[in-house]
Amino acid sequence: MCLNNFFAEQPVTLAFPRSRRYESAEYMTNLARRLRRHQHYKWALQASEHALRLAPSLDRALYEQALILHEMGNITAAITCLVEAIEKGTTLLEIPKTLALFRAE
Questions:
Q1: SS3 sequence, 41-75?
Q2: Which of 52, 72, 61 is nearest to 95 (CA)?
Q3: What is the DSSP letter of 105?
Q4: What is the pTM of this model?
Q5: Is it the case that residue 1 has pLDDT exceeding 70?
């Protein structure tokens, strides 16, 4: 459909226009990362929780949530997030390293 519009020189709509960006788990994970870097931990936690509601098996969202919880001082909840990501079969190499660091604290 979009290819036909392209060849017909008609405007092609984007798959995720700005009004629908909050329906993307990847977008919410990236938002959580940026908020965490700016030390807006409560907002970052809300963004990561929203990402996990959209895609419960998204390991990057669990990793971000663990980092946020760690920054907020809740180390046990951060470890729980990392263990959950490992149980779901994550492919992120940072998760086992971070889990070892958190357990050492």
A1: HHHHHHHHHHHHHHCCCCHHHHHHHHHHHHHCCCH
A2: 61
A3: -
A4: 0.77
A5: no
